[in-house]
Specification:
single chain, TIM Barrel, 11 strands, alpha/beta
Length: about 280
């Protein structure tokens, strides 16, 4: 039995846990295909996260996960909810998860940290994790400095655990290229922003479909960190708020985060079609 089958998955595919954008309907739709849908907890209160988890559980009987942004001011409350609800898998980012391992492991939750470079991967491998998600600069949102296809072989070489490739994944051929370099699976985010089940502002999805190379740029957000956003409206926006982009389509203040695969997105599709494109050479 493969590592992902042990987790109850049909495919070694994670949907990125995108803050504000990973709604219950999207997460459940992904999990219902046999991949892993992931709720983005960033910006949510503990009660909001609990409601999202319970709503997702009503929509799917398959495993799903939660992404924890470890620098969130209410992270301890979010971890408590994740443990209370016995979520199957947690992905982590923006911080060190070491202090939360006792709680997560006591509940039987599998942990997959997102790492942007080899140094952090080495650090995470000292902890009781279940795998790594190596995210390259091609990804949307806050990013590191290494490309996905440079990062994957270096991290795969030092890890006996599954390494998932994230950043720049659009279809079957990207998936296969990652596996050739040592990845045991993939995580994709931007392509699911263009899913019919993803409840982001309609103009956000329209901007994705209209994107053309180079359709994204790096911009500093309100947190002071660099993030990859859509170039238009990125050039004129303050890039202050991802929430403003997702919920209101605010062209003045919204941070319309997206990875470089936005350039290949041309239409809004159901999740099942996106997953099909990842697992079959059409």
């Amino acid at each position: 039995m493969n590592w992902y089958q042990k987790l109850g998955l049909k495919y070694p595919i994670f949907q990125g846990g995108m803050a504000w954008a990973s709604n219950s309907e999207l997460v459940a739709a992904v999990s219902n295909t046999g991949a892993l849908g992931i709720i983005g907890s960033g910006g949510r209160s503990a009660k909001q996260l609990q409601i999202m988890i319970q709503r997702t559980r009503q929509l799917t009987q398959h495993p799903f996960g939660v992404n924890l942004m470890l620098l969130a001011p209410n992270i301890q409350e979010l971890v408590k909810i994740v443990c209370q609800e016995k979520v199957a898998i947690v992905t982590t980012g923006a911080g060190n998860p070491i202090k939360y391992f006792p709680q997560l492991k006591a509940t039987g939750i599998k942990v997959f940290p997102v790492v942007p470079n080899v140094k952090i991967a080495q650090k995470m491998l000292q902890f009781p994790i279940n795998g790594l998600i190596a995210e390259g600069i091609e990804a949307g949102g806050h990013i590191g400095t290494e490309t996905t296809f440079t990062l994957i072989p270096q991290i795969a070489a030092i890890s006996d655990l599954p390494v998932l490739a994230a950043g720049g994944i659009y279809d079957y051929w990207d998936y296969q290229a990652a596996t050739v370099l040592g990845a045991a699976g993939i995580q994709a985010g931007t392509i699911f922003l263009a899913a019919r089940e993803c409840q982001i502002a309609s103009n956000y999805q329209q901007l994705l479909c209209q994107s053309s190379n180079p359709g994204t740029m790096l911009a500093k957000t309100s947190t002071g960190y660099w993030a990859r956003v859509l170039k238009n409206p990125g050039q004129s926006s303050t890039n202050r708020s991802l929430k403003a982009a997702v919920e209101d389509g605010d062209l003045e203040n919204g941070a319309f985060m997206a990875g470089q695969v936005a350039d290949r997105i041309t239409q809004i599709e159901p999740v099942v079609k996106i997953i099909n494109r990842l697992v079959h050479a059409n």
